[in-house]
Write a structure and sequence with these properties.
Order of helices and strands: EHEHHEHEH
Number of domains: 1
Distance between the termini: 26 Å
Radius of gyration: 15 Å
Largest sheet: 4 strands, parallel
CATH class: Alpha Beta
CATH topology: Rossmann fold
CATH architecture: 3-Layer(aba) Sandwich
Length: 126
C-alpha cells in the first residue's frame, strides 16, 4: 500500500455536553471516522484526546482543543459529523480549515467525489 497517497481527513464535530451527551458525541465522531476510513481515507479523531485527558488530568478546554489544531492543518480535508452546527469549537475548526484552503465536507459522497476529481486536492490541476 502506498501510504503517501492516502488522504488525511480530520473528523470534526460537537463534543461538549453533559457526560452522556459527550459520550454520544464521541460515538458519532467514531462512527463517521469509520465511514471515512472504509472509503480509503486516514481519519484523525480529535475526540480520542479524551484518553490523554483521563491519563494526564487535562482540565481546561485548551488542553483538548489546541493540540488537535496542528493535525487539522496537516489534513487534506475536514469531515463534519451530524450536529456540528451548534459547536463553537467546530465552527472555529471550519474557519481555520477555510482560512488555509482545506476543503470541508458534510457527507461522504462529496468527500469521495472531491478526491476523485482532484486526487491531489489541488483544484488547479484540471
Amino acid at each position: 500500500m502506498d501510504y503517501e497517497k492516502i488522504k488525511r481527513v480530520y473528523v470534526a464535530g460537537k463534543l461538549n455536553s453533559n457526560a452522556v451527551g459527550y459520550l454520544n458525541n464521541v460515538h458519532r465522531m467514531l462512527k463517521s471516522a469509520e465511514e471515512v476510513r472504509l472509503l480509503g481515507f486516514a481519519p484523525f479523531v480529535p475526540a480520542l484526546d479524551l484518553l490523554m485527558g483521563i491519563k494526564f488530568g487535562y482540565n481546561t478546554y485548551e488542553d483538548y482543543f489546541d493540540s488537535s489544531q496542528a493535525w487539522l492543518l496537516a489534513s487534506d480535508a475536514v469531515f463534519l459529523t451530524p450536529g456540528w452546527e451548534t459547536s463553537k469549537g467546530t465552527g472555529l475548526e471550519v474557519a481555520l480549515a477555510e482560512e488555509h484552503g482545506i476543503p470541508v465536507f458534510e457527507n461522504t459522497e462529496d468527500l469521495q467525489t472531491y478526491f476523485e476529481v482532484f486526487p491531489n486536492g489541488d483544484k488547479t490541476e484540471i
